[in-house]
Request: fold
Amino acid sequence: MIPFVGLRAQYQTIKDEIDVAIRDVVSRADFILGAHLEEFERAFAPFLGVEHAIGVGSGGDALRLALMALEVGPGNDVIVPANSYIATALAVSSVGARPVLVDCDPSTYNIDVTRVEAALTPRTRAIIPVHFTGLAADMDPILEVASRHGIPVIEDAAQAHGARYKQRMCGAIGAMGCFSFYPSKNLGAYGDGGMVVTNDRELAERVASLRNYGQSEKYIHVRKGLNARLDSLQAAVLLVKLKHLAVWNAAREAHARAYRQLLVGVGDLVFQQCPAYARHIYHLFIVETGRRDALRKYLHDREIQTGIHYPIPIHLQAAYTDLGYREGDFPRAEQLAGRALSLPMFPELTPEQIHYVAAAIREFYAEG
Ligand SMILES: *Cc1c(COP(=O)(O)O)cnc(C)c1O
Reply:
């Protein structure tokens, strides 16, 4: 069986380090806002080249806290891509603002930067590009529109730990960057976790207070915050894993090159395009095909797990009927929802496994 993500295989490669780290947290009984969290924050900030990193409860919390720190709320609009995990839009809704969707570019699957300006309203208070699949969104045109209108950019880097845009690290480019440490992400915890990064001290202080019930010092509450802290066990695990991230990302890139070489010209397969400005870290390896569901079943029958990111676009989810969007409003996101198939992608994949997957896909098309 070839899993979609190989978390058990990964644990075996770092077991000794992880077990020591977990024992250390438990024996110190320093579970919340302790030394491990500070150490991880102090390691994550220079990894990205930013001044401040604030560990939070999840990627969704990171986005929500970033919006709260910018005082985005009821009556405000926030631009988000139509093609993302729904958490990006839900963070906007969670502060009472309205997500305004923008369709994706058909070749990169990232937000179509030529459509951002037309989606602005007098109420727009933030733009949240997503570095979807680990491929940087085209940030310069987004930053240009944003600065002309005086609107901050919050990067959703939940799939982009270590991805680059023109030498800059994803997450370190806008006013704030938001990361998820959901277990299957390129840098994943053993539970939920997230991080907000910024170079702005004032914003960093607000996020640090907001994640801890709005506290400034013990029992002094200066704003209405929430409980959205990254706990010490997760921080200790993430500190171990951060040291391996560069090697893991390089392995993913090599796997992507192998898939492309083995599958180029096969059937009707179309690959995601990676522009020269980006260093793609392949959180996901997506192929497009008009026979997606049949291919998925064929691979499933050969014990190859695949994923669909994502089967129902945000604007067609029942949760968002209130936005008033209809089928046809974001044709590229809708087309992708029907055509995209994510192949197994994780650092520990072996060349034999990649060949097995590619051979199965070639057989699928050979059988017609
Ligand atoms: C995973 C993800 C999130 C949410 O992260 P959680 O840690 O699961 O809350 C947000 N945005 C994108 C693009 C994601 O992939």
User: Anything to note?
Assistant: The longest strand covers residues 52-56. The pocket of pyridoxal-5'-phosphate is lined by residues 58-60, 84-85, 87-88, 130, 156, 158-159, 180, 182, 192, 194 (CB under 6 Å). The first helix runs from residue 7 to 28. The two ends are 24 Å apart (CA to CA).
